[in-house]
Give the backbone structure.
Amino acid sequence: MANTSEACTLLSSLLEGKVAYPGNPKYKAVEDAYFCAQEEELLPACIVTPICTDDVAVAVKALAKLQVKFAIRGGGHNLNAGAANIDSGITINLRSMKNVTLNADKTMVSIGGGAKWADVYVHLDGSGVATSGGRVADVGVGGLTTGGGISFFSAREGLVCDNVENFEVVLSSGEIVNANQDQNTDLWIALKGGSSNFGIVTRFDIRTFPQADFYGGLLITSIASVSEQLNGFANLLANFDPYVAIIMSITWNQTRNDFTVYNNLEYTKPIENPPAFQAFTQAQSQYMNTMRISTLHDFATEAGKFALAGLRNQYATTTFGGDLSVLKTVYDIWTSSLPPLASFQDMNWAMSIQPLPPAFSRSTARLGGNSLCLDPSSGKGSLTLFLLSYSWSNATNDKAVISAAQKLIADIDAATKERGVFNKFKYLNYAANWQRPMEGYGEESVQRLKAVSAKYDPEGLFQKNVPGGFKVSEIG
């Protein structure tokens, strides 16, 4: 603790006016802005808020010298406690570094490491171009991109990380480097899926593409039509349209004691009610239907409209192949997991499914490669990415809720293995802290990530002194 106190004092002198302590309104504002309660409950000794890359370099050098544990906060949306905050250590809060600049020929957008996708999309609206970014406006650019990133456009343009032309990175030494196809290429590829293992990304230069307004919205129905909608989802898997983006969620809410189907649907052309969506748009007992032609910013804002900020929120994930019969099996397993949770106050238990088609990774090689190593040529067709999102309010229920989530994922994996459709991929941005998503990248990719970590962070600062997140050093 002595080193932490000394580090806060040193940083206060080196970065005057940019360090906040408990009791300071600036400290409270940062703490109150985390998405989930588990992150907000962590209380750092001080919070450093740099306003430029040089400030970040100063902070990293000081923290490395004094061997102080720290956390890196971008958008603050990560649901794993400790990923973007730290108890009794020091949090580097990048949120003031959120500048967004579109270059003169509109082919690339440069984004500060603390930006959220809302900051990006409001800047791009009306420009005639878009970028492959997050589907929820409140999510941070940094975490989503270095974790891979799925966008409304991924079937056409690749994963979000594939579209990064350059990362500006502060290394453990405090050196500021660029990582791209010509410089530090191994680091460039590692950052595309390798998360926060190598340094602090202070700027993302991401390619853009022409994009008009498009069709999409939110469709909420009763559970009565869930079979027809699962069938519609299965048809999308079998006949994938690259302009389709869908997250189909089936939720149970303790307060209402009821099931609901939520569909976030986007068709990235200005074509209303395309055939691919009609199993959903024609579903009976609709509670809400906002389908329309609008902007990327509008849809990303709407996608986060029902997010339950401030509760004890968590994700868990898995991946599988198969047809409608597999989807129905997974739905039945999810439904049967509910009874032990039914009495927990403010409990929300939701399964979401979305296509993970070969098209998502077909652009990877052309755009320089990444670390996720999804194989578009496996011949197994579209996979289904499964997300369990769950929230509750009482910390005394933490153990039981986490245990239920672990059992559900294990039961789904067992069922899909039995059917021969299990897939080892676990999407890092959806993974719970008890999962090991980078193991799913494969041994060759893991060894490359370890080599890049050793090369650019030889003392292991980001492995040992940044305890949050998924560490390549912890993979066997």
Remarks:
- The mean pLDDT is 96.
- The first helix runs from residue 2 to 14.
